[in-house]
Amino acid sequence: MNTIVLDIDDTLLNPSRRMQAIWREVLSREVPLEAVESLEQKQIFLTYASEEQKESSAKFQRRFWDLVLCLDKLGVELLALDEPVPSAAEVVKEWNRRNEILYVTGRTENTRKLTISELESFDFPIVTTRLFMLRIEDYSGILEENPKGPTLAEAKAQHFSSVAVSRRVIRVVDDFPDCFPVYKQLEVPDRIGYHVKRFPLAKYAEKGATRVVEGWSDLLDSKVNTETQIMKDH
Fold first, then answer.
1. What pLDDT, on the 0 to 100 scale, is given for residue 229?
2. pLDDT of the residue at 148
3. How far apart are CA 51 and CA 67, in angstroms?
4. Using H for helix, E for strand and C for coil, what is the string for the chain?
5. pTM, entire model
6. What is the pLDDT of residue 224?
């Protein structure tokens, strides 16, 4: 059976309102939703943090990641703010009729049950799919606990490589351009960049995407018989 690999946050689920609430908690001020969607974490902190907060950046970064990774109870509660990306569940269910679906996410193992429940509540297929998650240790570099620790892209790429080695992965959909070099290296034929505002459109192709979409509605025509064509082209 062919395999399709899907990212979760900012690809299948829209976490923008949750991230806005996290920034509100961390910085004690409102960060506009537009900024949350269009700026990377470091840019948001430099733009909206006070001078006093910038002087204690490590403390605020740790608080941010404790909430994002649901190591804090409030982070768990804020998951309720996530929303499904329009048309994503419809397309994924159709793809799942002929293919194995792997959700490969930057979320960590402590959120497994929460993530499965969330995907199921938004009508994404669960029973016939598999979910691969990172470990808290994979964030040691980001949390500055280990200077030699991996970046998020490196951790996810390593994880993807380990799950893809025994599978025939024909398609991947991801919003994070820095993950695409490994998808290209492993010769995934259909490498779809799901464009989000914080990354330039051209960056996806530069990093190895074979095509870029602005929404899952752009993939509705890919639901039927596309897998056969991919394998012929490959």
1. 46
2. 76
3. 22
4. CEEEEECCECCCEECHHHHHHHHHHHHCCCCCHHHHHHCCHHHHHHHHCCHHHHHCHHHHHHHHHHHHCCCCHHHHHHHHHCEECCCHHHHHHHHHCCCEEEEEEEEEHHHHHHHHHHHHHCCCCCCCEEEEEECHHHHCCCCCCCCCCCCHHHHHHHHHHHHHCCCEEEEEEECCHHHHHHHHHCCCCEEEEECCCCCCHHHHHHHCCCEEECCHHHHHHHCCCHHHHHHHHC
5. 0.91
6. 42
Give CA–CA dist 162/58, Å, rounded. Answer: 32
Domain residue ranges in the chain: 2-14+84-233, 16-81
In whole angstroms, what is the distance from residue 208 CA to residue 222 CA? 20
Give every residue of the chain whose pLDDT is below 70, as ranges: 145, 221-234
In the CATH scheme, what architecture does the domain 2-14+84-233 have?
A: 3-Layer(aba) Sandwich (3.40)
Distance separating alpha carbons of residues 112 and 107, to the nearest angstrom:
8
State residue 48's pLDDT score. 98
Q: Give the span between the Cα atoms of 16 and 12, in whole angstroms.
A: 12
Give the separation between CA 70 and CA 158, rounded to whole angstroms: 23
